[in-house]
């Protein structure tokens, strides 16, 4: 069963091919990072236009890398939300045209659910990365737009236990990196700077306390960094020290809530997913502190890609979740 997955929810035009839901055949990602960098964030109109330009070249590259042709496909999967409306529409309409012309099932995929399925993708079938899901799994989805704590009870069965009450984790990384003059996207920049200069030596930034047991808040932390940068709290430390202290605070909050939720709900494993799951400190601390196995996709499959959409679609299709050609985007789609 060979599935093509199309992802255009934000600023990556991405197509992946996956066999039987777990075997990664190819993942081609055309990033728009340079286009948006000069604006310090994603400009929706520019993103949509770039998706239109990139779609066919990315498809050609994916098929050529997979060594197959369109008639070899068994299904076409596409992200229909959440994300930027214009960007989603490009991928969705492209997927509809492909599915219709090839008489293939069109499988609608929730982008957040897609991120989870990157966890079980195998590059080398002889060396499986994981035994597959051990339900119930506790999933921490941390991306540019979301920070969700979700209990995955089975394929397609989710219960959201917590979320951010303000900024998403990736958004906080991006905003703080901008305050520190580190460029866009901020997460990889802060990760690299901290890896190079080491952990925070003396500075300790606060962790938010919230009523919701598994909820997060990162905007207070961002404001604190802003006050320090402006010199409102005495002499400003070096950018590397501030970046490390910020990352430490975010990682501590994320890991603490995920571990509490896993323990309280009898989770048999923890899955870390979404762009921020590429963060080396988050991966290290979660693996170190978790009493249950932690499953994390390789860094390049944590950020947006089409393979995760194809992987998830395999299980959606098994549950007969097939769309008709009147499928619409859902920019505010959630999980659980
Ligand atoms: O999942 P994703 O690629 O797109 C969305 O669905 O939002 O996540 C993008 C986010 C950005 O905010 C980016 O700064 C963050 O993931 N990110 C990271 C790292 N790599 C990407 N954050 C921290 N450390 C990283 N290494
Ligand atoms: Zn994403």
Characterization of this structure:
The strands form 2 sheets. Strands 3-2-1-4-5 form a 5-stranded mixed sheet, with helices on both faces. It has a 5-stranded mixed sheet with strand order 8-7-6-9-10, with helices on both faces. The protein has helices at 33-37, 44-66, 85-102, 111-117, 169-179, 186-197, 219-229, 239-264, 280-289, 299-302, 307-318; strands at residues 2-7, 12-19, 23-31, 75-81, 106-110, 137-142, 147-154, 157-163, 269-273, 294-295. Helices cover 41% and strands 19% of the residues. It starts with a strand and ends in an 18-residue tail after the last helix. Helix 5 runs antiparallel to helix 8 (239-264). A hairpin with a 3-residue loop joins strand 2 and strand 3 (23-31). By secondary structure, the chain is of the alpha/beta class. Residues 111, 115, 143, 274-275, 304 line the site of zinc ion (ZN).
Features:
336 residues, alpha/beta, five-stranded mixed sheet, 11 helices, 19% strand, globular, binds 5'-O-[(R)-(carboxyoxy)(hydroxy)phosphoryl]adenosine, binds zinc ion
